[in-house]
Design a protein that fits this description.
Blueprint: E1 3-12, H1 20-32, E2 36-39, E3 44-48, H2 53-67, E4 72-80, H3 89-97
Helix pairs in contact: 1-2
Length: 98
Amino acid sequence: MKYLVDISVEPIGTNSTSLSRFVKIVYEVLKAKGIKFYPAPSMTTLEIDDITQLGYIIKDIDDALSKEGVKRIVTMMKIDDRRDKENSIEHKLEVIKT
């Protein structure tokens, strides 16, 4: 069973309106952890096998941003826990193409 988790990570107090530098840091953390993800303009969808991973993923993201000087981070999440059918990023993208 896969969980799809939409996250939006907002670093606060960065002295800039641009966030691309921080988005890249988040993506590097996800890549290093081997997390499958799909970027979108305002949120990123993660595909994970075990929901208990989520806390560790968020902690690693926060730690990486903190190392870059971010003092406050707001993270918003939406969890899709579908148990009756396949739940994957590919499946969702394929369904909307047809």
